[in-house]
Amino acid sequence: MAEGWEIRLFSALAIFAAVALWEALAPRRRLTFGRLKRWPSNLGVFVVDAFVVRVLFPVALAGVALFAQQRGWGLFNALGAPSWLAGLVSLLVLDFAIWAQHVAFHRIPVLWRLHRMHHADLDYDVTTALRFHPLEIAISFALKIAAVVALGAPAWAALAFEILLNGLAMFNHANASVPGALEPFVRAIVVTPDMHRVHHSIVPAETNSNFGFNLSVWDRLFRVYRAAPTGGQEGMTIGLPILRDERELRLDRMLTQPFREG
């Protein structure tokens, strides 16, 4: 389904531009290493990820949903559920699945070696949302395919889910913040930048909290929610205790991080 890829790409570019402008106009923190040292590699790994996904999975997630629907595969297709109901429940279940996957990538050592590349960024901004190892992206896409087929999710819901996931990930990785008066109300529904930034703290207990990308309810429900970092938003250190050499910001070093001790 080529249209799915095109819609996703257009929406991702538009959201990226909007969040980057927000950061430029109202930065939350002063960047330690800045954009010039980080953006080329972070954007570069995003291009590598996109290439890997297109090669390994030539059909978009919405195309997978249509394929399953034509064959009657999946729970909602078997039940003949109305599209609006199947779509809304699918969006909720898929969001939980991504939350659970994120927790697994922290808790299972071999998966953490892949995921830690995301956390090894030494600053935090919109490009951090694009910084995932290609192997992690491939595993994640395969799991999303399995979930969409098992659910029998409608194609519109599969497409909406990917747009929401990508868009809100860029939003909550912004080096910006929701205005103070609105923060509690927005955070009650979706993950805000100030909420997710805690997850990128160098403090292990904070790294292992606030796993959500979309809905904020899962972290509260499973008691891994932290309202703020110990050192405060401006005082917290971003990254991991390892992989702090500035050379680790290079694309070649990023791609080999899972296969090195540090």
- Helices and strands, in N-to-C order? HHHHHHHHHHHHHH
Helix content, binned percent: 55-70%
Termini separation: 41 Å
Largest sheet: none
Low-confidence stretches: none
Shape call: globular
- How many domains? The number is 1
Q: Please compute the radius of gyration using only Cα atoms.
A: 18 Å
The number of helical elements comes to: 14
Q: How many extended strands?
A: 0
Mean pLDDT: 95
Provide the β-strand percentage band: under 5%
Label the structural class.
Answer: mainly alpha
SSE arrangement:
Layout: H1 2-25, H2 39-56, H3 61-71, H4 75-79, H5 83-107, H6 109-119, H7 134-151, H8 155-172, H9 183-187, H10 193-197, H11 204-207, H12 217-221, H13 232-235, H14 251-256
Helix pairs in contact: 1-8, 2-7, 3-7, 3-8, 5-6, 5-7, 5-8
